Amino acid sequence: MSKENVPAEDNAPSIGKMSPDRMERLVAGCFGAPSSKVIIGPGQGLDAGIISLDDGRIMAVAEDPIFPAAGLSLEMFGQFTVHIGASDVAVTGVKPEFMTYSLLLPPKFPEKDTRTIISSISETATKLGITIVGGHTGWYGAVTIPTVGGITVWGYAQKDKWISPGGAQDGDILLMTKGPAIEAAALLAVLNKDYLARSMKADLLERVLRRTDEITVVSDASVAFKAGGVHSMHDATEGGVLCGLWEISSSARTPLFADFDKITVPEDIAQCASLLGFDPWQSISEGTLLASVAPEHVASVTKALEDSGSACFKLGHFDKSLSSSMLTRNGVTTKLPSPGPDQFWDLFANPHQ
After folding, report:
1. Is residue 217 a contact partner of residue 310, using CB atoms and an 8 Å limit?
2. Order of strands across the sheet that contains 147-158
3. What contacts 52, CB < 8 A, 6 or more positions away?
4. Tens place of pLDDT for every residue, the chain, 353 residues?
5. What is the model's pTM?
6. CATH number of domain containing 84
7. Which are the contacts of 256, defined by CB distance < 8 A and separation ≥ 6?
8. Do the beta carbons of residue 251 and residue 164 sit within 8 Å?
9. Contact assessment for residue 313 and residue 244, using Cβ atoms and an 8 Å cutoff
């Protein structure tokens, strides 16, 4: 795609990840030198690339930026860095093994705080069995808050021991862990704690604040994959569950039917969303695992997840007889909408006073 074919302006949202249309305009064809070793390359909803190795194994590799949030500890920032990167590899069924990261800091950011972030990243990686093999740390005038410009995580598996986010099959049951808006509710609750405390019961507020510990699918993905019968997994990040559904259906080229009316949004998340004004089904939800599972394995996968401490919900199914993906919500069945802007970013930048 030549520069002449890229519009100077468009109406797509300017905050958050690219929409499918914008990705097609800006990224299509810009993948460097071609290689026959690439099994899965860049694409909408594809959490990790998959590369074929000469010894018969594959390598799953993923990349993410990490932004801090006011009110979150530096230790938690370090934990998020590792879990968010590792989650994108874990959904392929591959164990995350190695990582690099670039930590970018404001000019006057103290060394002791820098050490806190670095130590937290190392401790979290150690707990997940991930080895840090390189990266970059520096102080720069263009940087106003500590930011991980990128974390790269990768791991290896035998060529038949991994799955693709696009691997859903006709007849698969769609499962969802934990609930929608895990990340949005948790982070926005931290940012708006005093505001929410005026209306939310103390126990519900405390519950949603504790969901910062749930912003990961590393464990859920590992547990589900080991239980067997899982054809695809996806982490519902930007755009939330709605975007995640669109991505896995599009990647698999298989329509799905989802019924939100059968799911009760956890009370703490529902109240947080109502008070702050965001749609829990369309807001960033790192920590929510979406999985397509063969019908005969649904019971065992559900039990394994619940035994590990993660709630598991049956959200719908994949059906090639449908002309397009469908969604039932509030008693109305419509076509599944294409991804729209995530309300989280505006609320993240402008917390309630």
Report:
1. no
2. 38-40, 49-52, 57-66, 147-158, 98-105, 131-139
3. 36, 37, 38, 39, 58, 159
4. 344 444 445 555 567 777 778 888 888 888 999 999 999 998 777 889 999 999 999 999 999 999 887 778 999 999 999 999 999 999 999 999 999 999 999 999 999 999 999 999 999 999 999 999 999 999 999 999 999 999 999 999 999 999 988 899 999 999 999 999 999 999 999 999 999 999 999 999 999 999 999 999 999 999 999 999 999 999 999 999 999 999 999 999 999 999 999 999 999 999 999 999 999 999 999 999 999 999 999 999 999 999 999 999 999 999 999 999 999 999 999 999 988 889 999 998 888 86
5. 0.90
6. 3.30.1330.10
7. 168, 174, 245, 248, 249, 316, 317, 318, 319, 322, 325, 326, 336
8. yes
9. no
Q: Which of 97, 129, 158 is the last residue of a domain?
A: 158
Instruction: Check if the beta carbon of residue 276 is closer than 8 Å to that of residue 188.
Output: yes
Which pair of structure tokens corresponds to residue 265? 């949004």
Residue 24 forms part of a structural domain: no
The residue assigned the tokens 């769609």 is 174
Q: Write out the residue range of the structural domain in which residue 311 sits.
A: 173-349
Q: How far are the Cα atoms of 37, 119, 330 from residue 262, in angstroms, in the given order?
A: 43, 43, 10
Q: Is residue 164 one of the residues assigned to a domain?
A: no
Q: Are 67 and 214 found together in one domain?
A: no
Q: How far apart are CA 137 and CA 119, in angstroms?
A: 13
Instruction: Based on the fold, state whether residues 208 and 324 are members of the same structural domain.
Output: yes
51: tokens are: 């590369």
Query: Closest Cα to residue 259, out of 281, 240, 232, 235?
Result: 281
Residue 102 class from Cβ within 10 Å (0-12 exposed, 13-18 middle, 19+ buried)?
middle
